[in-house]
Structure formats: C-alpha cells, structure tokens
Design goal:
alpha+beta; RNA_pol_sigma-70_dom; RNA_pol_sigma_r3/r4-like; about 15% strand; six-stranded mixed beta sheet; RNA polymerase sigma-70 factor
C-alpha cells in the first residue's frame, strides 16, 4: 500500500473507509483475523478498479468486502462443524467510544453474534448491512448478487429470526455494566461463591471456548449455582496466580484473565437489570492474538 495517501485517490478512499470495512467483515465472520484477510483481498481488488467509473466509492468498497466475506464465511461454516466444543466469536478489545454507542455495541455483542451464527451466509450479510450499517437495499442487492425484492424478503426473514432469538432486554449502560463486572471480578479473584451468586442472574448462561486446545466446558453451563461452582472449581484447580483486569470487549464491559502474568482468556459479559445474564469466555489461543497485542479498536 502506498504511503502517500493524499496523492493516491484509491488509497485515500480505502483508508477513509477501512474501519467500516473491517467492522462489516468482522460482524459477518466473527473473526478479526479473517476480517483482516478480507481487508487485504478487498484492497487487491480495489486498486484494479477504474475510479472514474465509480459513483459511490464507499458503497463499492462495501460491495467488495461483502463478497469476499461471503466467500470466506462459507468456508468457515465447514470449519466450525468440526470445532471442538462451543464456538465463540474472536473477542475484540474496543475503545470506550464503542461502548457508548449503544446500537454499534449491541450489533457486535457476543450475544447477538452468536444469534447471527444461526443465519445462512446470505441472511447474515443482508442483516449486518441493513440493520447494523443501514446500507440501502439497492447497495445490498449489488453486494450479494440478488434482486432488491429478494433482498427485502431475506432482510425480513433474517430480522424475524434474530428477533426471536436475541436477548429480550436491552443491555444496560456501560457504566452500570462496569460496576456489575467489578463485583464479579472481586468474586473471581477471591473464589467467593456467595459473591458470584449475588451478581449472577438465576438463569445465567456461561459459554466457554477452548477450541480443543484449552480446557473448557463442552456445553453451555446454565444457572447461577452451576455457573458459580464451575468457575470456583476451575480457579481452585490451578496453582497459578490469577489476575483479572477490566477491559471493553466487543463494545461491552469485559475482563482479561491472566495466570502468572500470561494471558489465559477474555471474558465478555451481558448485564441486564443489575445482574450478569451471559458470560462468554474465550480461551482458545488462536482467537486471542488481537488481545495479546493489547490493541484497542475504535470501529467508527
């Protein structure tokens, strides 16, 4: 990529929309590494385009990124079928401004992205482009290779599917979420069973992703008592020193866990009505490369 952005219209346009393209690809794929690959593929195709023939550069870039994401998503679907244990999206450490943008934070939350996993690749692309980024039906049709009428039907079907499965209550403000996570963090560092029960919702769900490389529950753990005992039992079995720090994961308050100073995993949480209703713990090292680099992404 050329370094003189101002002198190169193609590079200037790509850089201007890079964060948008990354976010579109990430929300479609659930993988930061694959989203970065999509950006590279998008760039290689973009530099071959005759810019004089492009009416809307942003829309054209989104079209390229969407098509590349769809190609990759179909391949990833086969990989996930052979995955050991629950599959969680690759966590992103996001800047605080993302957490303050309620719509963006919700669109990339672990809870919603798990729901998006139940859509077909085309449904997911249409839903993400329309619901998260308000892309026009005309532009979406060009991106997914369907008619506008078909895209409207797909969008309606995908929205109905997601609405039936997404969390009913809206996530709490970021400040409230951080306060609840602080109580959870204290319980985690002290192994206080009652401390967990005080902060976990009765029907809380814990999903852990070790990818067959790190120990994790092979099925979701449901219920405050079971989740609390699972966490306390896991921390009691290790002889390593546990350190837990606050962060922002996928636009919501979360925690980074380290054992003897080494990154062990990232835990995202969903907080509703002052209690934790969802915990999403990623331990698979292959999904923690962005976190290990401590890079915080501002996605707008």
């Amino acid at each position: 990529m050329k370094s003189d952005h101002a002198a190169d219209p193609a590079t200037e346009a790509f850089v201007a929309h890079r964060n948008l393209l990354f976010t579109v690809a990430y929300e479609m794929l659930g993988s930061a590494a694959d989203a970065e690959d999509v950006l590279q593929e998008t760039w290689l195709r973009w530099v071959k385009v005759d810019l004089d023939q492009i009416r809307d550069r942003r829309a054209y870039l989104v079209r390229i990124a969407t098509r590349q994401s769809l190609n990759r998503l179909r391949t990833m679907t086969r990989r996930k079928e052979a995955y050991v244990g629950p599959w969680l999206p690759e966590p992103l450490l996001t800047a605080p401004d993302v957490a303050e943008d309620a719509e963006l934070a919700e669109s990339m939350s672990m809870a919603l992205m798990l729901v998006l996993e139940t859509l077909s690749p085309t449904e997911r692309a249409v839903f993400v482009l329309r619901e998260a980024f308000d892309v026009s039906y005309e532009e979406i049709a060009a991106a997914v290779g369907k008619s506008q009428a078909a895209v409207r039907q797909i969008a309606h079907r995908a929205r109905r599917h997601v609405d039936a499965r997404r969390p009913r209550a809206a996530a709490v403000p970021a400040s409230e979420g951080r306060a609840v996570l602080e109580s959870f963090r204290r319980a985690l560092e002290t192994g206080d069973l009652q401390g967990f029960l005080d902060v976990l919702a009765p029907d809380v769900v814990l999903v852990s992703d070790g990818g067959g490389v790190k120990q994790a529950a092979l099925r979701p753990v449901v219920g405050a008592q079971k989740v609390a005992r699972f966490i306390v039992g896991g921390t009691a079995r290790t002889e390593s020193a546990l350190a837990v720090g606050h962060t922002v994961v996928n636009g919501s308050p979360g925690l980074v866990l380290r054992l003897d100073g080494e990154l062990d995993g990232v835990m995202a949480a969903r907080v509703e009505d002052g209690r934790v209703t969802g915990l999403y713990y990623v331990r698979n090292p292959a999904k923690l490369t962005h976190v290990a680099g401590e890079t915080r992404l501002s996605l707008r």
